[in-house]
Hints:
single chain, 8-stranded mixed barrel, 45% helix, 20% strand, disordered N terminus, binds ligand C2E, binds magnesium ion
Amino acid sequence: MTCYPTTVPVPATPPIGLGEASVGLERAIAHDELRLLYQPIVRIADRAVVAVEALVRWEHPTAGLLTPDRFLEAGHTAGHMPLLDRWVLYRACRDVAELADSLGDAAPEHLNVNLSAPTLATDFTEPVTTALRRTGLPPHRLRLELSEGADLTTLTHAAPRLQGLIERGVGVALDDMGTGSTDLRYLSRLALHGIKIDKEFVAGMLTNPRDHAIVAMLTDLAHSLRLHVTAEGVETTEQLAALARMGVSYAQGFHFAPPLTLADLSGTLLASA
Ligand code: C2E
Ligand code: MG
Ligand code: MG
């Protein structure tokens, strides 16, 4: 598929004011100001796009298109994350169901949606099953990404609901692996689908032997638990080659594609079909 420049855009602007974002996020949903981008997840062996991750943006009326670092923290503080996650779940399932209708086999098999820690503390079974039912997306096409940064109590509390969704066919992956302090027993207790190795380790793995060792250790651990391994933040051919040598099967990052609008994703998929 198309390769994109590997330069990482560094946001020059600070988070918008807490008050503005916290009041605004609820209003943003009501005024339809949130947007979703989709970043391809590629199978390293044949470069096929097997999944896309939905990533939220806020098209702010005055500040322009905002990335999550500028409003999610305020959303957490204001208690708006369950609302945001519900919106993303429905909209992303709807987009990918439509993509599957229009592109058929050229559509990615899986859709990854991030669930925040506050949402994990709620009855999230309902928004997940409602989104699937209303959009017609088959449960096995949906994968929930849980940040490893979520604390163990939250993850433990969420485990029965996650297990219920897994039994319906939904996949569950641990995101940002290596950044949190997840009790390793959690990895074996829940029938997880996979892990995503945090991009900080991928960024450092060619120059810092410790980062390299962590990526290798997480990959071996995941494989011995029969979990799929996806490396995030892959920006260069050299990183990709090193990950392939370690046995990592899936990759996501600017080396393949940045987060894309639905229209650009559709065009990219059609061009490489
Ligand atoms: P994440 O789930 O780990 O998502 C991956 C992040 O890495 C995305 O940042 C993506 O744009 C960025 N990324 C992708 N490829 C590369 C690369 O090659 N190099 C680098 N340096 N970065 C890359 P983004 O979109 O800014 O999202 C940041 C975080 O915000 C996400 O991390 C996730 O934790 C959260 N987030 C984003 N969208 C949602 C959402 O819809 N719901 C929830 N609950 N959280 C979200
Ligand atoms: Mg994620
Ligand atoms: Mg991540």
